Amino acid sequence: MRLRDVRELGLRMQHRRILWNAQIDLTNRCNEDCIHCLRNTDCAHELSLEEIKGILIQLKEEGCIRLILSGGEVFLREDIWDILRFARKMGFGFDIKTNGLMISRNNIKRLKAIQPLSVHFSVYGASPQVHESITRVPGSFERTMRAIRLCRDNGMSVLIATIVFNNNFHELTSIKKMAKEEGCDFIADFIIMPGVSGERGPLRLRSTEEQLKSAFKRRLLTWGLNNRNKKYRSGRTLDGGRSSIHISSNGKVYVSVTLRIEVGDLRQQNLREIWRNSPKLNWLHSLAEKDFGCYDCRDKTVCLCRRPDLAFLEHGDLKAKPLEICRINKIYSDYHREKEQAYARARQG
Ligand code: SF4
Ligand code: SF4
User: Fold this and answer.
1) Which pLDDT score, from 0 to 100, does residue 253 have?
2) CA of 296 to the centre of ligand 2 (A)
3) Among candidates 328, 331, 288, which has minimal Cα distance to 308?
4) How far is the CA of 9 from the centre of ligand 2 (A)?
5) Nearest protein CA to atom 3 of ligand 1, as residue
6) Is 143 in the pocket of ligand 2 (CB under 6 A)?
7) 297 strand-pairing partners
8) What are the pLDDT digits (tens) for 284-307?
9) What is the spatial distance between Cα 94 and Cα 84, in angstroms, rounded to a whole number?
10) Would you say the CB of residue 40 lies under 6 angstroms from ligand 1?
Protein backbone atom coordinates (compact mmCIF):
# COMPACT_ATOMS: atom_id res chain seq x y z
CA MET A 1 0.00 0.00 0.00
CA ARG A 2 1.39 3.41 -0.95
CA LEU A 3 1.88 6.15 1.61
CA ARG A 4 -0.82 8.23 -0.08
CA ASP A 5 -3.33 5.35 0.14
CA VAL A 6 -2.56 4.86 3.84
CA ARG A 7 -3.16 8.56 4.48
CA GLU A 8 -6.43 8.45 2.54
CA LEU A 9 -7.63 5.44 4.52
CA GLY A 10 -6.64 7.16 7.76
CA LEU A 11 -8.69 10.24 6.90
CA ARG A 12 -11.78 8.14 6.21
CA MET A 13 -11.38 6.29 9.50
CA GLN A 14 -10.94 9.58 11.39
CA HIS A 15 -14.21 10.75 9.97
CA ARG A 16 -15.98 7.75 11.48
CA ARG A 17 -13.94 7.62 14.67
CA ILE A 18 -12.78 4.05 14.19
CA LEU A 19 -9.58 3.00 15.96
CA TRP A 20 -7.63 1.56 13.06
CA ASN A 21 -4.10 2.70 13.83
CA ALA A 22 -1.90 2.71 16.91
CA GLN A 23 1.65 3.85 17.46
CA ILE A 24 3.40 1.86 20.15
CA ASP A 25 6.74 2.87 21.64
CA LEU A 26 8.30 -0.49 22.40
CA THR A 27 11.14 1.05 24.37
CA ASN A 28 12.53 4.39 25.38
CA ARG A 29 16.10 3.23 25.17
CA CYS A 30 18.10 4.48 22.22
CA ASN A 31 21.59 4.15 20.80
CA GLU A 32 21.52 7.64 19.32
CA ASP A 33 21.34 10.95 21.13
CA CYS A 34 19.55 13.25 18.72
CA ILE A 35 19.52 16.92 19.57
CA HIS A 36 15.76 17.26 18.99
CA CYS A 37 14.58 13.95 20.47
CA LEU A 38 10.98 13.99 21.75
CA ARG A 39 11.08 10.76 23.72
CA ASN A 40 10.33 10.94 27.36
CA THR A 41 13.54 9.79 28.98
CA ASP A 42 12.05 9.34 32.46
CA CYS A 43 9.67 6.66 31.22
CA ALA A 44 10.87 3.65 33.26
CA HIS A 45 9.42 0.11 33.50
CA GLU A 46 8.84 -0.63 29.86
CA LEU A 47 6.07 -3.03 28.92
CA SER A 48 7.00 -6.70 29.05
CA LEU A 49 6.55 -9.06 26.12
CA GLU A 50 3.41 -10.51 27.70
CA GLU A 51 1.97 -7.03 28.30
CA ILE A 52 2.63 -6.05 24.69
CA LYS A 53 0.98 -9.23 23.44
CA GLY A 54 -2.05 -8.46 25.62
CA ILE A 55 -2.26 -4.93 24.20
CA LEU A 56 -2.03 -6.21 20.64
CA ILE A 57 -4.91 -8.61 21.32
CA GLN A 58 -7.00 -5.75 22.71
CA LEU A 59 -6.15 -3.54 19.73
CA LYS A 60 -7.23 -6.29 17.37
CA GLU A 61 -10.50 -6.75 19.25
CA GLU A 62 -11.17 -3.02 18.93
CA GLY A 63 -10.71 -3.22 15.14
CA CYS A 64 -7.19 -1.89 14.82
CA ILE A 65 -5.41 -3.16 11.72
CA ARG A 66 -2.31 -1.01 11.49
CA LEU A 67 0.57 -0.34 13.85
CA ILE A 68 3.55 1.92 13.90
CA LEU A 69 6.22 0.32 16.05
CA SER A 70 8.67 2.87 17.32
CA GLY A 71 10.91 3.81 20.22
CA GLY A 72 13.55 4.77 21.25
CA GLU A 73 15.24 2.22 19.07
CA VAL A 74 13.01 -0.84 18.71
CA PHE A 75 15.84 -3.24 17.89
CA LEU A 76 17.39 -2.65 21.31
CA ARG A 77 14.66 -4.86 22.77
CA GLU A 78 15.97 -8.38 23.27
CA ASP A 79 12.49 -9.77 22.50
CA ILE A 80 11.85 -7.62 19.41
CA TRP A 81 11.60 -10.64 17.09
CA ASP A 82 8.98 -12.25 19.35
CA ILE A 83 6.98 -9.01 19.25
CA LEU A 84 7.26 -8.66 15.48
CA ARG A 85 6.33 -12.30 14.89
CA PHE A 86 3.33 -11.98 17.20
CA ALA A 87 2.14 -8.81 15.43
CA ARG A 88 2.50 -10.59 12.11
CA LYS A 89 0.62 -13.66 13.39
CA MET A 90 -2.20 -11.37 14.58
CA GLY A 91 -2.52 -10.05 11.04
CA PHE A 92 -1.52 -6.43 11.68
CA GLY A 93 0.05 -4.37 8.96
CA PHE A 94 2.89 -2.48 10.55
CA ASP A 95 5.57 0.06 9.89
CA ILE A 96 8.77 -0.01 11.87
CA LYS A 97 10.60 3.18 12.82
CA THR A 98 14.29 2.62 13.38
CA ASN A 99 17.60 4.38 13.08
CA GLY A 100 18.90 1.18 11.48
CA LEU A 101 22.07 0.91 13.58
CA MET A 102 21.24 -2.66 14.57
CA ILE A 103 20.07 -3.89 11.17
CA SER A 104 22.76 -5.98 9.52
CA ARG A 105 23.37 -8.85 7.12
CA ASN A 106 22.91 -11.16 10.12
CA ASN A 107 19.27 -10.24 10.74
CA ILE A 108 17.97 -8.82 7.46
CA LYS A 109 16.40 -12.13 6.40
CA ARG A 110 14.51 -12.30 9.69
CA LEU A 111 13.21 -8.80 9.08
CA LYS A 112 12.22 -9.65 5.54
CA ALA A 113 10.31 -12.72 6.77
CA ILE A 114 8.26 -10.49 9.10
CA GLN A 115 7.04 -8.50 6.07
CA PRO A 116 6.62 -5.01 7.53
CA LEU A 117 4.54 -2.62 5.42
CA SER A 118 7.52 -0.32 5.44
CA VAL A 119 10.61 0.57 7.39
CA HIS A 120 11.06 4.24 8.31
CA PHE A 121 14.50 5.73 8.76
CA SER A 122 15.35 9.24 9.86
CA VAL A 123 18.14 10.74 7.79
CA TYR A 124 19.21 14.24 8.72
CA GLY A 125 21.90 14.91 6.17
CA ALA A 126 23.39 13.78 2.89
CA SER A 127 26.82 13.66 4.51
CA PRO A 128 28.13 12.05 7.69
CA GLN A 129 29.12 15.45 9.10
CA VAL A 130 25.62 16.91 8.99
CA HIS A 131 23.71 13.73 9.90
CA GLU A 132 25.99 12.99 12.83
CA SER A 133 25.90 16.56 14.09
CA ILE A 134 22.26 15.73 14.88
CA THR A 135 22.44 12.07 15.98
CA ARG A 136 25.67 12.71 17.93
CA VAL A 137 26.88 9.18 17.14
CA PRO A 138 30.03 8.89 14.99
CA GLY A 139 29.56 6.43 12.14
CA SER A 140 25.76 6.52 12.33
CA PHE A 141 25.30 7.90 8.81
CA GLU A 142 27.15 5.01 7.24
CA ARG A 143 25.30 2.43 9.35
CA THR A 144 21.87 3.94 8.67
CA MET A 145 22.51 4.09 4.92
CA ARG A 146 23.73 0.50 4.95
CA ALA A 147 20.53 -0.60 6.69
CA ILE A 148 18.41 1.34 4.18
CA ARG A 149 20.12 -0.45 1.31
CA LEU A 150 19.80 -3.84 2.97
CA CYS A 151 16.05 -3.32 3.44
CA ARG A 152 15.61 -2.05 -0.08
CA ASP A 153 17.67 -4.88 -1.60
CA ASN A 154 15.50 -7.35 0.27
CA GLY A 155 12.34 -5.97 -1.27
CA MET A 156 11.07 -3.90 1.65
CA SER A 157 9.41 -0.55 1.21
CA VAL A 158 11.59 2.15 2.76
CA LEU A 159 10.71 5.67 3.83
CA ILE A 160 13.38 8.26 4.49
CA ALA A 161 12.09 10.98 6.80
CA THR A 162 14.01 14.19 7.33
CA ILE A 163 13.39 16.75 9.99
CA VAL A 164 14.54 20.04 8.56
CA PHE A 165 16.59 22.25 10.84
CA ASN A 166 18.42 25.48 10.12
CA ASN A 167 21.69 23.53 10.23
CA ASN A 168 20.79 20.77 7.74
CA PHE A 169 18.59 22.80 5.38
CA HIS A 170 21.47 23.21 2.94
CA GLU A 171 21.54 19.44 2.38
CA LEU A 172 17.78 18.96 1.99
CA THR A 173 17.80 18.82 -1.80
CA SER A 174 20.65 16.31 -1.70
CA ILE A 175 18.81 14.11 0.84
CA LYS A 176 15.72 14.15 -1.34
CA LYS A 177 17.79 13.26 -4.40
CA MET A 178 19.59 10.52 -2.48
CA ALA A 179 16.23 9.03 -1.37
CA LYS A 180 15.06 8.97 -4.97
CA GLU A 181 18.26 7.35 -6.18
CA GLU A 182 17.96 4.72 -3.43
CA GLY A 183 14.35 3.99 -4.51
CA CYS A 184 12.85 5.20 -1.21
CA ASP A 185 9.83 7.32 -0.36
CA PHE A 186 10.72 10.67 1.17
CA ILE A 187 9.10 13.14 3.50
CA ALA A 188 10.46 16.30 5.07
CA ASP A 189 9.08 17.87 8.21
CA PHE A 190 9.73 21.55 8.92
CA ILE A 191 7.72 21.82 12.12
CA ILE A 192 10.09 21.80 15.08
CA MET A 193 8.20 21.32 18.32
CA PRO A 194 9.20 22.03 21.91
CA GLY A 195 10.13 18.85 23.80
CA VAL A 196 7.33 16.86 25.49
CA SER A 197 8.47 18.10 28.87
CA GLY A 198 8.42 21.69 27.64
CA GLU A 199 12.11 21.96 26.66
CA ARG A 200 12.63 24.99 24.42
CA GLY A 201 16.10 23.90 23.23
CA PRO A 202 14.97 22.38 19.91
CA LEU A 203 13.30 25.68 18.92
CA ARG A 204 16.64 27.33 18.18
CA LEU A 205 16.94 24.82 15.30
CA ARG A 206 13.88 26.10 13.43
CA SER A 207 14.40 27.09 9.79
CA THR A 208 14.94 30.79 9.17
CA GLU A 209 12.67 33.00 7.09
CA GLU A 210 15.12 32.91 4.19
CA GLN A 211 15.29 29.13 4.30
CA LEU A 212 11.51 28.77 4.40
CA LYS A 213 11.08 31.13 1.43
CA SER A 214 13.64 29.12 -0.46
CA ALA A 215 11.78 25.91 0.44
CA PHE A 216 8.50 27.33 -0.91
CA LYS A 217 10.23 28.51 -4.06
CA ARG A 218 11.87 25.14 -4.70
CA ARG A 219 8.69 23.26 -3.76
CA LEU A 220 10.43 21.50 -0.89
CA LEU A 221 7.59 22.60 1.35
CA THR A 222 3.94 22.63 0.29
CA TRP A 223 1.38 24.55 2.23
CA GLY A 224 -2.40 24.41 2.52
CA LEU A 225 -2.76 20.61 2.84
CA ASN A 226 -5.56 21.16 5.29
CA ASN A 227 -7.76 22.58 2.61
CA ARG A 228 -6.94 19.82 0.18
CA ASN A 229 -8.40 17.27 2.57
CA LYS A 230 -11.34 19.44 3.50
CA LYS A 231 -14.09 17.03 2.53
CA TYR A 232 -12.96 14.52 5.14
CA ARG A 233 -12.39 17.11 7.77
CA SER A 234 -15.61 19.01 7.98
CA GLY A 235 -16.89 19.18 11.52
CA ARG A 236 -13.65 17.90 13.06
CA THR A 237 -11.10 19.70 15.11
CA LEU A 238 -8.61 16.99 16.10
CA ASP A 239 -6.85 14.22 14.23
CA GLY A 240 -5.20 12.32 17.09
CA GLY A 241 -7.56 10.18 19.13
CA ARG A 242 -10.14 9.97 16.34
CA SER A 243 -8.80 6.90 14.62
CA SER A 244 -5.42 6.49 16.25
CA ILE A 245 -3.74 6.54 19.60
CA HIS A 246 -0.24 6.53 20.95
CA ILE A 247 0.86 3.98 23.55
CA SER A 248 4.06 4.82 25.39
CA SER A 249 6.64 2.26 26.43
CA ASN A 250 5.16 2.05 29.95
CA GLY A 251 1.56 1.54 28.80
CA LYS A 252 0.30 5.11 29.17
CA VAL A 253 -2.08 6.11 26.39
CA TYR A 254 -1.86 9.52 24.74
CA VAL A 255 -3.92 11.21 22.08
CA SER A 256 -0.95 11.13 19.71
CA VAL A 257 2.84 11.14 19.77
CA THR A 258 2.88 14.91 19.84
CA LEU A 259 -0.42 15.68 21.60
CA ARG A 260 0.78 14.43 24.96
CA ILE A 261 -2.49 14.42 26.80
CA GLU A 262 -2.74 11.23 28.81
CA VAL A 263 -6.12 9.57 28.29
CA GLY A 264 -5.54 6.27 30.05
CA ASP A 265 -3.14 3.66 31.37
CA LEU A 266 -3.16 0.13 29.95
CA ARG A 267 -1.66 -1.20 33.16
CA GLN A 268 -4.80 -0.04 34.98
CA GLN A 269 -7.56 -0.15 32.37
CA ASN A 270 -8.43 -2.05 29.25
CA LEU A 271 -8.21 -0.46 25.85
CA ARG A 272 -11.94 -0.56 25.10
CA GLU A 273 -12.71 1.35 28.26
CA ILE A 274 -10.15 4.00 27.36
CA TRP A 275 -11.15 4.32 23.71
CA ARG A 276 -14.86 4.48 24.33
CA ASN A 277 -15.18 6.11 27.74
CA SER A 278 -12.12 8.23 28.45
CA PRO A 279 -13.51 11.54 29.75
CA LYS A 280 -10.53 13.38 28.29
CA LEU A 281 -10.97 11.85 24.82
CA ASN A 282 -14.68 12.60 24.91
CA TRP A 283 -13.97 16.17 25.99
CA LEU A 284 -11.41 16.59 23.22
CA HIS A 285 -13.89 15.44 20.62
CA SER A 286 -16.64 17.62 21.95
CA LEU A 287 -14.58 20.70 21.06
CA ALA A 288 -16.00 22.65 18.17
CA GLU A 289 -14.09 24.62 15.59
CA LYS A 290 -15.17 27.90 17.18
CA ASP A 291 -13.42 26.88 20.43
CA PHE A 292 -10.02 27.16 18.75
CA GLY A 293 -7.87 30.24 18.34
CA CYS A 294 -7.69 29.69 14.58
CA TYR A 295 -11.45 30.01 14.21
CA ASP A 296 -11.64 33.69 13.42
CA CYS A 297 -8.26 33.98 11.72
CA ARG A 298 -8.63 35.50 8.28
CA ASP A 299 -5.73 33.38 7.01
CA LYS A 300 -7.28 30.05 7.83
CA THR A 301 -8.28 29.27 4.26
CA VAL A 302 -4.66 29.12 3.14
CA CYS A 303 -3.03 28.03 6.37
CA LEU A 304 -2.16 24.51 7.43
CA CYS A 305 -3.45 25.50 10.92
CA ARG A 306 -5.27 23.19 13.35
CA ARG A 307 -2.20 21.94 15.16
CA PRO A 308 -3.54 21.53 18.69
CA ASP A 309 -0.54 19.34 19.50
CA LEU A 310 1.84 22.19 18.74
CA ALA A 311 -0.33 24.73 20.57
CA PHE A 312 -0.40 22.40 23.58
CA LEU A 313 3.39 22.15 23.66
CA GLU A 314 3.83 25.88 23.05
CA HIS A 315 1.22 27.21 25.50
CA GLY A 316 -0.13 24.27 27.52
CA ASP A 317 -3.46 25.02 25.80
CA LEU A 318 -4.41 23.02 22.75
CA LYS A 319 -7.00 25.62 21.73
CA ALA A 320 -4.46 28.43 21.43
CA LYS A 321 -2.99 29.59 18.14
CA PRO A 322 0.01 27.43 17.16
CA LEU A 323 2.56 30.20 16.81
CA GLU A 324 5.08 28.32 14.70
CA ILE A 325 2.37 27.60 12.13
CA CYS A 326 1.41 31.30 12.22
CA ARG A 327 5.05 32.20 11.59
CA ILE A 328 5.42 29.85 8.63
CA ASN A 329 2.08 30.92 7.22
CA LYS A 330 3.08 34.58 7.38
CA ILE A 331 6.32 33.79 5.52
CA TYR A 332 4.31 31.83 2.96
CA SER A 333 1.83 34.69 2.51
CA ASP A 334 4.65 37.23 2.04
CA TYR A 335 6.40 34.94 -0.42
CA HIS A 336 3.19 34.38 -2.35
CA ARG A 337 2.40 38.12 -2.47
CA GLU A 338 5.91 39.00 -3.67
CA LYS A 339 5.62 36.36 -6.36
CA GLU A 340 2.30 37.73 -7.58
CA GLN A 341 3.64 41.30 -7.59
CA ALA A 342 6.67 40.21 -9.61
CA TYR A 343 4.39 38.42 -12.04
CA ALA A 344 2.17 41.51 -12.40
CA ARG A 345 5.23 43.71 -13.02
CA ALA A 346 6.52 41.31 -15.65
CA ARG A 347 3.20 41.37 -17.46
CA GLN A 348 3.09 45.17 -17.43
CA GLY A 349 6.68 45.58 -18.56
S1 SF4 B 1 16.91 7.91 17.00
FE2 SF4 B 1 14.86 8.66 17.55
S3 SF4 B 1 14.55 7.97 19.66
FE4 SF4 B 1 16.74 7.81 19.24
S5 SF4 B 1 17.62 9.73 20.01
FE6 SF4 B 1 17.16 9.98 17.80
S7 SF4 B 1 15.11 10.89 17.72
FE8 SF4 B 1 15.40 10.02 19.80
S1 SF4 C 1 -2.20 28.78 12.66
FE2 SF4 C 1 -2.14 30.99 12.88
S3 SF4 C 1 -2.21 31.79 10.77
FE4 SF4 C 1 -2.90 29.64 10.73
S5 SF4 C 1 -5.12 29.76 10.86
FE6 SF4 C 1 -4.31 29.47 12.95
S7 SF4 C 1 -4.12 31.55 13.79
FE8 SF4 C 1 -4.31 31.72 11.55
Assistant:
1) 97
2) 9
3) 288
4) 26
5) 72
6) no
7) none
8) 888 888 899 998 898 887 886 778
9) 9
10) no
